[in-house]
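Good morning,

Attaching, inline, the backbone tokens for the sequence recovery test we're adding to the shared suite. The designed sequence is right after.
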């Protein structure tokens, strides 16, 4: 299972991954901006993972078990 680090999640706006509660807790404009920022950051995370997989470089991947 892959999961973002606590540090990554903490670096996101509101320190969390967007969820359904955002529809009641945030107005539409704020929610859209927030979700777009998180989408951009997760794209960077996915690109970093892809690069690690291509290079078979798993030293930065924390294996839990």
């Amino acid at each position: 299972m892959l999961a973002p680090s606590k540090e990554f999640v903490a670096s996101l706006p509101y320190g969390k991954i967007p969820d359904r509660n955002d529809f009641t807790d945030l107005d539409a404009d704020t929610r859209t901006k927030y979700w777009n920022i998180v989408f951009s950051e997760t794209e960077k995370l996915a690109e970093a993972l892809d690069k690690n997989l291509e290079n078979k470089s798993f030293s930065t991947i924390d294996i839990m078990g």
